[in-house]
């Protein structure tokens, strides 16, 4: 014999469901967009989107995007922006490539590349925060500075990394398990750790407070400048990982590494449900946004359109996302 739910129990169940939807409406909305998009792509070209190879292709490179999208969510939430991360990707990957090419163990080379990227992120954060500069303009200038320095030092020459394929590091970091890209596992672990940091750790709480109202955060005893610098450090960490994984996937380092990730990363963050005014955001939504942007590129090509349409649609979804966030601003608040 089963108990019949009382009106109070049904009210509690509805209340729980209502609270869940409200707390995760940004991520759920992004997921709905992704599902609708995939349905349309499948209807438009079922031969392509019923083939596993198309998903394998996306999953192979998707981790690179995730490693920069997730830290960008932290930065936008705290009220900052970083346009220099593509250059930091190239810098960290360059150090990795130089070390690995000289015979240093790839794991140690990876640590060196990430360490340089983290230090660069810290330097960028220090310049922006303690220099009192606009992060938008300052990181744009620093991007040109870092990229220009790389081009001058390398003469624009790439570094081939074909020997990586025979190393244990490649198998552990970028190999396959039963046909599944290993780098997606590392990306998933990165997302899980970032969600806990963003939603369950005091650092994430401070990021939200500083982004929402820095004056109130200071009155609460939070060192707002230090928190802002730490978000740039985290951005450097993610950019270093992204650049190195990109190099390992392609077996080549290019001086232009990271250049193609600026607009898609911003698109993924904003379409994922993180608005521009700071204080709120969603790591899960940003991750789903990265998936959406990756599949948009594949969908455009499979639909028979030129690759030139990719930038057009990336720009379109940024504008539409910002308009949607602005309409919902009062409800968010």
Describe the structure.
- By secondary structure, this protein is an all-alpha fold.
- The chain has a single domain (25-328), classed as ABC transporter involved in vitamin B12 uptake, BtuC.
- The chain is 75% helix and 2% strand.
- It has helices spanning 7-23, 25-44, 46-49, 52-77, 85-101, 106-130, 135-154, 168-174, 182-199, 202-212, 214-219, 224-250, 262-271, 283-302, 309-327, 329-332, and strands at 159-160, 176-177, 180-181, 252-253.
- The strands form 2 sheets. The chain has a two-stranded antiparallel ribbon with strand order 1-4. Strands 2-3 form a two-stranded antiparallel sheet.
- Helix 4 crosses helix 14 (283-302).
- It is globular.
Topology at a glance:
Layout lengths: L6 H17 L1 H20 L1 H4 L2 H26 L7 H17 L4 H25 L4 H20 L4 E2 L7 H7 L1 E2 L2 E2 H18 L2 H11 L1 H6 L4 H27 L1 E2 L8 H10 L11 H20 L6 H19 L1 H4 L1
Antiparallel strand pairs: 1-4, 2-3
The amount of beta strand, in percent, is under 5%
Provide mean pLDDT, rounded. Answer: 87
For the biggest sheet, the summary is: 2 strands, antiparallel
N→C terminal distance: 46 Å
Query: Unreliable stretches, pLDDT < 50, 5 or more residues?
Result: none
Order of helices and strands: HHHHHHHEHEEHHHHEHHHH
Structural class: mainly alpha
Strand arrangement, largest sheet? 1-4
CATH class reads: Mainly Alpha
How many helical stretches? 16
User: Oligomeric state of the chains?
Assistant: single chain
Number of extended strands: 4
Q: Can you name the CATH architecture?
A: Orthogonal Bundle
């Amino acid at each position: 014999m089963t108990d019949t739910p009382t009106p109070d129990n049904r009210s509690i169940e509805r209340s729980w469901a209502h609270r869940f939807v409200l707390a995760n409406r940004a991520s759920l909305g992004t997921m709905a967009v992704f599902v609708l998009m995939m349905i349309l792509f499948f209807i438009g070209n079922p031969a392509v989107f019923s083939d596993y190879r198309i998903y394998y292709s996306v999953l192979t490179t998707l981790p690179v995007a995730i490693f920069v999208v997730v830290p960008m969510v932290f930065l936008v939430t705290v009220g900052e922006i970083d346009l220099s991360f593509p250059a930091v990707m190239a810098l960290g990957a360059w150090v990795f490539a130089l070390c690995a090419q000289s015979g240093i163990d790839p794991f140690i080379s990876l640590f060196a590349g990430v360490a340089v990227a983290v230090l660069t992120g810290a330097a960028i954060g220090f310049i922006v925060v303690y220099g009192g500069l606009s992060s938008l303009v300052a990181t744009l200038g620093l991007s040109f500075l870092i990229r220009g320095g790389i081009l001058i030092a390398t003469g624009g020459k790439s570094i081939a990394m074909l020997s990586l394929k025979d190393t244990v590091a490649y198998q552990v970091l970028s190999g396959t398990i039963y046909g599944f890209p290993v780098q997606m596992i590392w990306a998933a672990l990165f997302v899980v750790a970032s969600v806990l940091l963003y939603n369950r750790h005091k650092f994430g709480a401070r990021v939200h407070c500083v982004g929402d109202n820095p004056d109130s955060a200071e009155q609460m005893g939070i060192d707002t400048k230090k928190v802002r610098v730490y978000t740039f450090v985290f951005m450097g960490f993610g950019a270093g990982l992204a650049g190195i994984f990109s190099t390992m996937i392609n077996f080549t380092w290019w001086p232009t590494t990271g250049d193609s990730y600026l607009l898609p990363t911003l698109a993924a963050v904003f379409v994922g449900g993180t608005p521009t005014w700071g204080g709120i955001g969603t790591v899960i939504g940003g991750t789903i946004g990265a998936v959406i942007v990756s599949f948009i590129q594949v969908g455009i090509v499979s639909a028979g359109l030129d690759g030139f349409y990719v930038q057009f649609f990336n720009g379109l979804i940024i504008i539409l996302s910002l308009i949607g966030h602005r309409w919902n601003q009062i409800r968010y608040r």
